[in-house]
């Protein structure tokens, strides 16, 4: 029986979710030139940050803060439009917390921990008993209530969300060494030889960047860290290692609280921090039985519900037939005598006659010109693809014109198209 079924009062009612959404995501290249990584579009209609926010809401958490920093305009605009339904009279709140030099006029957020420290007074005003610190740039579905219950029952000072990953694939993560009781005995950032789990020599525990604290304990740690010379003001680099040494840190396995719809065969978590990973996670959604179910009404992914016309497919002539196969087509799209295969067309995409997209992630309000052929591409929002442009058939030409990964995925932006002349 899941833990949440044996309790009467959900702990989420006494919790606040604090989402760290200030990162640039530089490995996404030009896709984050004008927006923070959490604001990047995903899955046809959503933004990446919608997953962490939806998890909080679906878990029963009704007080949420979001710390922003890098090029936050599109992120803030999205949250104002999509997440403005919280009502203070129901003891709900949604605070957007840009870096605003609140401590003094010289300091922006210096690290993830500092992004919480600088807003202690705002958190105190909501008086939560627990704080759930979340990264705003991962794709997953998770019930934080179950993690909260483990935190309370274990008497931990901090509970750290962890993924089980093949041991030698954990070299890019913060990795936990744990004992038989899931108590964390060591925390190592990006180790060359990751420590294995007890009884699982080929598996390591990687941090998800999700932490649960008692609020007052967290405040004490943040104030201590702020007075520590040489600290980078970072959870993974400073706060968590200190608690591992001087307190009680406990690991929470993602498998214990991951949300899976009936068709999903495994717990799904993705860091879409590279162009290849971002493209693959989107294209995965076109599978007949996708690894991530976006149609799960029991755990919806909330986002901005744009008022727009339905998608439209027109022309039914040989060689000029509007059609899509194994694809996600969003509202306000027009596929006019064109074809899309295993692709995602986000809101407002227009495809001209005789154009063809295969395994493409086409972001909102793009216009694909007549006769264009695009294969294995990411097209940034608002791009107008010229008539007859061919991408994905000549690797050397693609690399000169666009941002091409080693696996052959091409990112196309407005600036790149403008350079074509």
Give a short summary of the structure.
The protein has 421 residues and is α/β, with parallel strands linked by helices. It has helices spanning 49-59, 73-82, 112-117, 120-126, 144-154, 215-226, 235-246, 275-284, 395-401, 414-419, and strands spanning 15-20, 41-42, 46-47, 63-68, 93-98, 130-135, 139-140, 158-166, 174-178, 184-189, 203-214, 249-253, 269-270, 312-314, 316-317, 320-321, 323-325, 328-329, 334-336, 339-341, 344-345, 350-351, 356-362, 367-368, 373-379, 384-385, 390-391, 403-404, 410-412. Strands 1, 4, 5, 6, 8, 9, 10, 11 and 12 form a 9-stranded mixed β-sheet that branches.
**How many helices does DSSP assign?**
10
Instruction: Please mark out the parts with pLDDT under 50 across 5 or more consecutive residues, or reply none.
Output: 1-7
Number-wise, the strands total 29
Q: What percentage of the residues does DSSP assign to strands (E)?
A: 25-35%
Structural class of the secondary elements?
Answer: alpha/beta
Radius of gyration equals 23 Å
Largest sheet: 9 strands, mixed
Which term fits the overall shape? globular
> Percent of residues in helical segments?
10-25%
End-to-end separation: 63 Å
pLDDT averaged residue by residue: 93
